[in-house]
Specification:
It comes from Pontibacter burrus. The chain is mainly beta. 33% of the residues are buried. The longest helix has 13 residues. It has one helix and 14 strands. Strands 1, 2, 3, 4, 5, 6, 7, 8, 9, 10, 11, 12, 13 and 14 form a 14-stranded antiparallel β-sheet that branches. Helices cover 5% and strands 59% of the residues. A hairpin with a 4-residue loop joins strand 3 and strand 4.
């Protein structure tokens, strides 16, 4: 997989985001924006020179609730800078014990695996946790995702990719303005690393640092990716519709 595609994969991971509940309703899953039926929202993606590179639209299509857990199915559409639809699909988020959880397998853009369309792809990953009660200095759970590419006929492993998200640390709340409005957001820092092994050979690791501006009850209103301290790209919340 080309290096620029690995960086784009990291960007897609950042774009597939989850929302959190108001602190006053930590156990009330109805307080989560992404667990509101028919809710819609849109993100705009930019490069480091502020050039629009695409947008992502999301819509909640169904809600399933039980006394212990509430789960939503979300349909996503990804468009390029010219407004052309490049891919779409479904993923799920859930509310349990006052936290929003998302399976890391649902964060992968199918376009990133297009090169392996004639092979068997297996993915196994953790659930990313966004707790309801956030505080400066809080450490959040790490996450890991493994992608194995196998030859369909022989079952031989052709390549393996492991993505680790570590160092998830909550910073202070900051005032931030995005097209969707003004918010008071928690600043969450984290590190991402992708290690690839192809035909038994280890490839150089790709590492980036990300910052998420997270608003309880809304979600991530802005995210930024950096490499060696230099901005690579960022995304902002453009609009929300309930």
């Amino acid at each position: 997989m080309k290096k620029r595609n690995l960086l784009y994969l990291f960007a897609i991971v950042m774009l597939t985001w989850v929302s959190g509940p108001p602190k006053a309703a930590a156990q009330d899953c109805a307080g989560y924006y992404l667990l509101t039926n028919d809710a819609e929202y849109e993100l705009l993606n930019y490069d480091r020179k502020d050039k629009l590179t695409g947008r992502v639209q999301y819509k909640v299509t169904s809600i399933n609730s039980s006394p212990a857990k509430t789960e939503a199915t979300i349909h996503s559409k990804i468009f390029d800078e010219k407004g052309k639809l490049t891919t779409e699909g479904n993923y799920t988020v859930s509310c349990q014990d006052g936290s929003m959880l998302i399976d890391m397998r649902s964060m992968i853009n199918p376009d990133m695996l297009a090169a392996y369309k004639n092979m068997e792809v297996k993915m196994q990953g953790d659930q990313m946790d966004y707790p309801s009660g956030l505080a400066a200095g809080q450490k959040l759970k790490d996450g890991s995702l493994t992608i194995d590419v196998l030859d369909k006929d022989s079952g031989q492993q052709m390549s393996s990719m492991v993505m680790n998200i570590t160092g998830r640390t909550v910073g202070d709340q900051e005032s931030i303005n995005v097209p969707a409005g003004a918010y008071n957001a928690f600043k969450i820092n984290q590190d991402m690393e992708m290690r690839t092994k192809a035909m038994g050979m280890n490839m150089p690791a790709t590492r980036i640092q990300t910052i998420e501006y997270f608003v309880p009850g809304v979600g991530i209103v802005r995210s930024e990716s950096y490499r060696n301290g230099k901005l690579l790209s960022y995304s902002v919340l453009n609009k929300m519709v309930k």
